[in-house]
Amino acid sequence: MNFTRWLGGGLIVLVTAWAAWPGMNPSLSPTLTPGFVPPAPSSAGVATPRFSSAIVNAAEPLRVHAASITELPDGRLFSTWFGGEREGGTEVQVYAAFRDADALAWGPQQAIASPAQSTRDLGLLVRKMGNPVAFVTPRGELWVIYVSVTMGGWATSHLNLLRSPDLGRSWLPATRLVSSPFINLSTLVKGAPVFYDNGEIGVPVYHELAGKFAELLVLSDAGEVRRKIRMDHGHRTLQPVVLVQDAQRAVALMRDATEDPPRAWRSETRDGGRSWSAPQSTDLPNPNSALAAVRLDDGRLIAVANDTEHDRLRLSLLVSTDEGLHWRVIHRFEDKQALFGQNLDIDRFRPVLAGDLDALGPGPARDAIAANAERNLCRSGDSCSWQYDYPHLIRAGNGDFHLVYTWNRSFVRHLSFNHAWLDARLRLEERL
Amino acid sequence: MIATVFDTLVWALAFSLCVPGLGGRPARAVAVLLGIALAISIPLADSSLMGALRGLFAGLSVASLVVLTALFVARVQRGGVFAGGERVSIAVLATVVGVLFYPLALGLGPVDPYAWGYGGATLALIAGGVGLLAWMAGLRVLVLCLVLALPAWRMQLLASPNLWDYLIDPLLAIGALIALIVMALKSARRVSSRPEQPGVKRGAA
Lengths: 432, 205
Known about the structure:
The complex is a heterodimer. By secondary structure, chain A is of the alpha+beta class.
């Protein structure tokens, strides 16, 4: 009896030691956090200011949202978004399109993920599609991480990973990312990833069930979840955007979930993302809406955000010289703030909408854009209101900036501008 | 693939426990178990009942598999699996861990215990230590819950890379809480229905 008891005890000790060994040996531990890869300085580009606009998606489906954009190694752009008859509908799919390096217009859209495909790939039921975020990994694969739901609202979301080793020509079956202890519920994605010097990928995500807080999900370059780092707790922050300064330092800007006061949040890390400071409120108004940002070569931050306290009637370009604490507007991409509180009837709405269409650039026919916008923005024909939201901003290798956002719930608008155009806005703002 | 087979087995065990008339009939019990496993795997539309369960409840833990297997075998054998008081010990442990762990892991405070499960040694050592104590106390099912989870995690057999997801799941914690309540009610009923001993007055000092 005693022998059996000692043998069993010894076996338990051996199994425990074997399981715990990688965690005790720092060189084997997957929790060892390396440093960030700072953004590479961009090439100077042309000196002439350049700004262009295009619509990324087709007129069908009716409603689209949550676009992201990435540059491929060959200079093409890739954008992805979700679209359907209504947000949260079971017919919603994740779409994508490419734009050639020197083109202005986007190529045809194609569905890359759907509830049926996800159900097949994952071996479990998926009914709804949500935010997709696209990026190219250090190994040169094109990845799309997208949200899906089996039952319930966005608070019961899961994350899935689609990988394309040939930059979007074909896609491997989607895999599920396990990121939450409670039935793997409630992790969503919005921001662009950061990269570590050991090849790991930090994906800014957020949690919405019970609490609302930002997190950083770290994946291996093969798409396995390595760890998750909480950037906050409680009920105040969503949709983090991480802006790397050097191997150890980064700033995160976050959507405000409290609306009291409605201001964007910021947090920072000084240890390569292992820990994050308690979020502090910035002076950037935020009506509980997503924002996007990038770091310039000189250390300044630029952001695209709804800099309002209510509604998403304005989308602005802003600059910060103090790591995101204070912000100044340097340009308005969209501005219907003067109409705040006014629900226009259809007869007053149509001329204002028509005035916007010319500036949109290549895309679907003008009539189709107007028809979709009208259907999405007007309730019963007597109450119409605009909406510009969910920006996603990147800086390409040639120094150009690419912004996509949801234009009036109906289209993905792509704005491109170069550093000369940005410099002109920055100089103008400095003179004021 | 392993995760799918694992989840199918766990759910088949759970459903099998709801089937009456399996006591003392091991062949019938195994047939019922396999039948349920097949039935929930039958394709329905784009998915299956198993796909719906996995979509709704994600993966279940190794501890759930061990507990359900023990309950199933105990049911078929009519006892002899759990040591005296072991059911209560497991239920108390799963309830306490669930009550402490899930609120914190869902953002109640600044400490995130879920982060401890990603590869550090601490949680694995604690699980092994509790397993060792359970072994010394003769709680064999609890030992299996804890000690089988460790190699499964080290080999990453299930979908999750986090040790917590091998040790506990919300359904186990909720089931444990319900089991505790039921056991407490049964115990209270037994006490109240016990006949008074001759010569002893109830309430006497």
